[in-house]
Write a structure and sequence with these properties.
The protein has 333 residues and is mainly beta. It contains 1 helix and 28 strands. The protein has a single domain, classed as YVTN repeat-like/Quinoprotein amine dehydrogenase (Methylamine Dehydrogenase, Chain H), CATH 2.130.10.
């Protein structure tokens, strides 16, 4: 959620990172022709996922006159960068229907890129600064819209678009398809609305959970224990929540502005510490281990790779990192 701590020109949410970045990029994007910007290597890499082709795919938010790009890196470290086609400050990314789908935070659209690099843009009335994205019920793409008050977007792979909206949705960030068949959304909250975790059924009424110590939650995933695990960025902790709403927080030295979280190949939860320049691991029993290494600098997104390692985006030094389950770190620029 906090990719880069840029000053937020709009003044909307001074404490949120990528959400702030998206708003600033949106302002900078006015009147810009993406095709006129030369291709770059890595420019503020943000979120990352495993692709259907055995490579890792990631978003580059970009900065200034650079509208960002979609990147692909093989497990050997070979990087390819794709620009144009409506790519505009992309944030979250996920795999679906044999391709990659991503949220254009500044462009107000959802993009699809094939494994051969063909980009298709879905620009729909109502999409406003999309942030993180996941594959939900029926294979549709569900995504949070940081500044679209009270809304979560749904885009079918056929291009059909709809929204679900509730007053309790306040600056939604992380999103995941839960083990109960519902979609779970983290709400960072505002100065007038407390942070919360929402369960959104495909049909029916949403349920909101507010708990003490919940502070700017960022990333969320389903653990191997079928509970919801999330990063609690503002309180430097990792949360575990049952589908019935029971929440427990894990703390420990080294948990510092945790951002994204994913299940690792070893059955533990792995997360990025944006503020601590480190990668964290927590077991389902709550044992926390922190890994530091050369090149880890402002890590944000993280995913499990096809090679049995964890891959992550270093937003602050424009690189992609790899860490084994034993803690060995490699860095690719």
């Amino acid at each position: 959620m906090r990719i880069i701590k840029l000053a937020l020109a709009t003044g909307l949410v001074p404490t949120l990172g990528l959400v702030a970045t998206a708003a600033a990029a949106n302002a900078a994007a006015q009147g810009r022709n993406p095709a006129s910007v030369p291709p770059a290597a890595l420019s503020v890499p943000a979120y990352i996922t495993s692709g259907p082709d055995g490579a890792l795919w990631f978003t580059n938010v970009g900065h200034g006159s650079n509208p960002g790009a979609i990147g692909r890196i093989t497990t050997k470290g070979q990087v390819t960068i794709y620009t144009g086609g409506g790519i505009d400050a992309p944030a979250g990314i996920t795999a679906a229907d044999g391709a990659l789908w991503f949220a254009n935070s500044a462009g107000g659209s959802i993009g699809r890129i094939s494994t051969s690099g063909k980009v298709t843009e879905y620009k729909k009335a109502g999409i406003a600064e999309p942030f993180l994205i996941t594959t939900g019920p029926g294979g549709a793409l569900w995504f949070t819209e940081a500044y679209n008050p009270g809304a979560v977007g749904i885009l079918g792979t056929n291009g059909d678009y709809s929204e679900v909206s509730y007053p309790g949705i306040a600056i939604p960030t992380g999103i995941t398809y839960g083990p109960d068949g519902d979609v779970w959304v983290l709400n960072a909250g505002t100065s007038t609305r407390k942070a919360s975790i929402a369960r959104i059924p495909v049909s029916g009424k949403a349920e909101f959970f507010t708990v003490p110590s919940l502070d700017a939650p960022a990333g969320i995933t389903v653990g191997p224990d079928k509970d919801l695990w999330f990063t609690n960025y503002g309180a430097n902790s990792i949360g575990r929540m049952t589908t019935s709403g029971f929440v427990h927080f894990f703390t420990g030295p080294g948990i510092d502005e945790p951002d994204s979280i994913i299940v690792g190949p070893d059955g533990a939860l792995w997360f990025t510490n944006y503020g601590g320049n480190s990668i964290g691991r927590v077991t389902t029993t709550g044992k926390v281990t922190i890994f530091k290494g050369t090149g880890i600098d402002g890590p944000t997104g993280i995913t499990a790779g096809p090679d049995g390692a964890l891959w992550f985006a270093n937003a602050s030094n424009n690189s992609i990192g790899r860490i084994t389950t034993t803690g060995h770190v490699s860095n690719f620029t």
